[in-house]
Structures are given as C-alpha cells and as structure tokens.
Amino acid sequence: MAYPTEKQLTHLRELLDKQETAVLIRARVNVPDDTDSCDTTDAEDTFSNMEFAELADIEAAKKRMSEGQYGLCTECGCTIAYARLEAYPTAKRCTHCQRLHEQHRR
Ligand SMILES: [Zn+2]
Prior knowledge:
Bound molecules: zinc ion
Number of helices: 4
Order of helices and strands: HHHH
C-alpha cells in the first residue's frame, strides 16, 4: 500500500505547515528589488508570484489531505511515492506525470 498512512500524513502535514511558515516569513522579509514593474515597490505585504504560487500549492495540498485525495497523482490517479511526498509535500503529480508536465511547459 503506497498511500500515506495516518502517521505519514501527520508528518507531511507538519512539513506543509513548516513550509507555509517559511514562505510567509520569506515574503515579509523579501523586498523585491529586481522586479521590472514599477507599481509594486510599496506593496509591503504583496507576495511575489512565486510565493503566491507556493502558498496556493500548500493550501491545495492541505485541501487534498482533508478530502482524502492527498498522495494521488492529479493526472493519472496513481499513488505518489512517499519519498517524493516527503521531499515535495506539495507534489500533486507522480514523477512520471511531473516530467511530462515539465517537458510540455518548456
Ligand atoms: Zn501520474
């Protein structure tokens, strides 16, 4: 059974919480100075796109957890290896689909 057990889920949830906190801290500390748009300078609590996307990923992962869909690939429905989830708690695709996705995007 590849699907994360309760214990693994608890651990992954902690990882997500930690990641979320780290992103929030980074977003607050990070003053964008290499942006080429000129209307973001005084937006102290505006997240960069990257941080926003990361937070959205974390929220989506938590939502999948509460729905019992966590650890399932959103593309093919197969189970995502626990080692991968531990490395990337926000992973929503299995290694195979992620590779296809990245190739496609390029
Ligand atoms: Zn897949």
